[in-house]
Amino acid sequence: RSCSFTGFSTVQSRKLAKSLSRSSVRSRMSLKSPKAYSSLQKGAVIWDPKPLQVKKIFEALKKGLNEYLEAHQAELDYLSGRHKDTKRNSRLAFYYDLDKQIRSVERYIRKLEFHISKVEELYEAYCIQCRLRDGATNMKHAFSLSPSTKASRESLVELYKNFQGCTEDMCFIEGALEVHLGEFHLKMKGLVGFARLCPGDQYEVFVRLGRQKWRLKGKIETDDSQTWDEEEKIFIPNLHEQFEIKVTELRGLATILVGVVTCDSINFFTTKPQAIIVDITELGTIKLQLEVLW
């Protein structure tokens, strides 16, 4: 749908441009922390925001946090029920120990509720900046179609500044949101390959998430068991990067590439450990088994 802004007054356009610039999230939110959001410090390269990816991560994160909240609320209800029974007919020491557990769970629930509210606040601010950025883009397009005048050129310059400001704010919020994503604990469970895996075979597995790397070597033993020089690694979730897994077979001084795959982390935001089986080869003759705990 196209619109004409030929009759749009200079005063109106300047007012709208100023209102967009006043909406800068960094002027309204006391979230700035150079230590926490190092990717947005002075001199850092501003990347292109990805609203659809951020939405997917936000929904998965919120769902996972609510799962944790429900689990701990159920635990609190159970402990509270035992607390009432214990108060009537049990030893005093056991009663106080139960009371201590209840208070600990209550504190954790409050932390989770605050965590969820902070994530929601960040995403709400992100959506506002996204809409303002889209509005600035649409207005830039509309002004570019109208006759060029001094007023329209000034408005275009102002709109470009607002577009850049919204882009920076969105990237700032993305950095702030990443701080709330928690950690992924990856455990190496081994390769699955049936006839493809023989005693004495040696493999190297390389896992990467953005700048985070994990390189480990393993060997197939005579009893078909596997030994790996490292079995666990912690990764910090990233909004924009996927897990990249590369497996190579070591044959003396030579290395043979078995396969390279990417794995989305969107399903890892859950309370229960996830068993992940990844097809390393196209036909699935060799698979990699990992366990992920968020």
From TrEMBL:
InterPro entries: FAM65_N, RIPOR3
FAM65 N-terminal domain location: 1-294
PANTHER family: PROTEIN KINASE PKN/PRK1, EFFECTOR, RIPOR FAMILY MEMBER 3
Family: Belongs to the RIPOR family.
Protein name stated in the entry: RIPR3 protein
